[in-house]
From TrEMBL:
<dbReference type="InterPro" id="IPR001734">
    <property type="entry name" value="Na/solute_symporter"/>
</dbReference>
<keyword id="KW-0406">Ion transport</keyword>
<dbReference type="GO" id="GO:0006814">
    <property type="term" value="P:sodium ion transport"/>
</dbReference>
<dbReference type="GO" id="GO:0015293">
    <property type="term" value="F:symporter activity"/>
</dbReference>
<keyword id="KW-1133">Transmembrane helix</keyword>
<dbReference type="InterPro" id="IPR051163">
    <property type="entry name" value="Sodium:Solute_Symporter_SSF"/>
</dbReference>
<keyword id="KW-0813">Transport</keyword>
<keyword id="KW-1003">Cell membrane</keyword>
<keyword id="KW-0915">Sodium</keyword>
<dbReference type="InterPro" id="IPR038377">
    <property type="entry name" value="Na/Glc_symporter_sf"/>
</dbReference>
<keyword id="KW-0812">Transmembrane</keyword>
<feature type="transmembrane region" description="Helical">
    <location>
        <begin position="147"/>
        <end position="171"/>
    </location>
</feature>
<comment type="similarity">
    <text>Belongs to the sodium:solute symporter (SSF) (TC 2.A.21) family.</text>
</comment>
<dbReference type="GO" id="GO:0005886">
    <property type="term" value="C:plasma membrane"/>
</dbReference>
<feature type="transmembrane region" description="Helical">
    <location>
        <begin position="6"/>
        <end position="25"/>
    </location>
</feature>
<feature type="transmembrane region" description="Helical">
    <location>
        <begin position="32"/>
        <end position="52"/>
    </location>
</feature>
<feature type="transmembrane region" description="Helical">
    <location>
        <begin position="105"/>
        <end position="127"/>
    </location>
</feature>
Length: 231
């Protein structure tokens, strides 16, 4: 339960960053408003409301990712140029098999983290357990668990490669080191700032992508709130 409280806090922080980047709301007001909206529809609809909103929010999340991927790769100059910049910046050293525990993104660190997170998420996480227990039979629960593993892994991989895209976009200009020009003070602000500046010329696209960030946060928070209430 304590882990879920911290997890919800981090998820809410992501949505608040996006809201602060596109509106004049203060950080505190953003936290209260988003938390209240999420708690409201969770309390009214229960698990069914959470599941249905998760479906629509997933569509917004995918739309946001696709928009950033398409424009980001175009800004960099193509996929080949993107990987060339990532390689020169040593962002593709994943298959480094040296058993160095101090290396943050080596093969063994990523593999260990992936296994531990995967076992935790699919085996003991209260959100996942609640949804599996809501199914009518064990057979359906097993098949659902197997089917959900691929899209979850795909989403995690897509979000990781999003970092490569933004690294390529800002390859020659670190937005934090140039904060006098960009106004950014934290690396957490890069995604909403890129959306707000890059998509400003496309009517509605900025709001749609910001909604995608909201969806990622609110779907997590609503699932955690609903499952935590059953503990």
């Amino acid at each position: 339960l304590l882990q879920m409280v911290f997890y919800m806090s981090i998820s809410l922080y992501g949505a608040v960053l996006a809201l602060s980047a596109t509106t004049d709301l203060s950080f505190e007001a953003s936290i209260v408003s988003l938390g209240a909206v999420c708690a409201f529809y969770c309390s009214l609809g229960g698990l069914k409301a959470v599941l249905w909103t998760d479906c629509f929010q997933a569509i917004l999340m995918i739309t946001c990712l696709l928009a950033i991927y398409i424009t980001g790769i175009s800004d960099v100059g193509g996929i080949f140029e993107l990987f060339q910049k990532a390689s020169s910046g040593k962002r593709l050293d994943l298959f480094e098999f040296m058993p160095d525990i101090t290396r943050r993104y080596g093969f063994w660190a990523c593999a260990t983290q992936g296994i531990l997170v995967g076992v935790s998420f699919f085996g003991t996480n209260q959100v996942e357990v609640q949804r599996l227990l809501s199914l009518s039979t064990i057979k359906r629960a097993k098949s659902t668990l197997r089917m959900s593993s691929f899209p979850v892994c795909l989403m995690y991989t897509t979000c990781c490669f999003l970092g490569l895209v933004l690294y390529g976009v800002y390859y020659n200009c670190d937005p934090i080191l140039n904060k006098e020009r960009t106004g950014l003070t934290k690396y957490d602000q890069i995604v909403p700032a890129y959306i707000a500046t890059r998509f400003s010329s496309y009517p509605g696209l900025t709001g749609l992508c910001i909604a995608g960030i909201f969806s990622a946060s609110l779907s997590t928070i609503s699932s955690c709130l609903n499952s935590a209430s059953t503990v």
